[in-house]
Amino acid sequence: MKSLPLHPFSVVFLCLFSMGLYAQNDPQVKAREYAENVFSGRQLINSQTTTTLQPRSWSFGIQHRFGKVGLDSSLTQQFLGLDLPSIIRFSFSWALSDRFYLEIGRNNYQKTIDLEGKYLFLKQSSDFKVPVSCAVYFNAALRTGPFPRVPANAYFADDTTVFVYKPSHRLAYNTQLIVSSKLTDKISVQINPILIYQNLVPLHHDNFTFVLSLGGRYKTGLSSAIIAEYAHVFNNRGDKFYNPFSLGVEFGTLGHTFQVFISNATKILESQLYTSSAVHLANGEFLLGFNLKRTFWRKH
Hints:
This protein is mainly beta. It has helices at 8-25, 27-30, 74-77, 270-273, and strands at 57-65, 69-70, 87-95, 100-107, 112-122, 133-143, 171-182, 187-198, 208-219, 224-233, 245-252, 256-263, 285-297.
């Protein structure tokens, strides 16, 4: 077991978090009107947004990724990938305030259960004197499915310790700083520095994975928009690694958000998505997916 020094990302998070608390306690800031509907959903496609749950509400979500198809006969033979094995995640969210919520989810890839939380510590003002919204996000994922068998002569990276699976190997963590801005009534953009930590990684990979995600939304109507995002993975790429890119449409109302999209990302949870290669878009390979969030309100 080795101790880890304070990472520069942690320093940035703490500084921005402190700035956000100071700004929200400023009486002048409290009197401001805030920008509304920077993003409709709590996820753009794969990446988190600064949107949180409304107070006194809870939410049920479904995220679905169908199988990989290409611009060939598989497109029709596999019926857009619907005939192939899919990855699906169900989740329940609970608002603790208008800025903070918790969510528990489960997806069938590696039979993973995850717990997440998001806190919005800075809100964009409608007069643009506060030009961005900022939130911090954390997710802890627990793999409950079986591990693959390893040879009897397998060793840890030190080449002296015999490899055996440990309970801690089932855990992975994902931390994000989310910065978004509503530039006009129709255009919103965001940037997410992402830090992933896995307790178990392949040989010659680092436990930390660093990712930068960029995304945007263009409103095409009162409740519809075009959404897109791209993420660059900086390390642990391996051979023939492809960065995830997604493009879709979104429909939102007061009670639900529905997104349908094409993507080259094959997983749902960020700690799994950004640590495995996407399919190759240049070869015409892609996946069809959708996200559905339904919000319900609690009585006082």
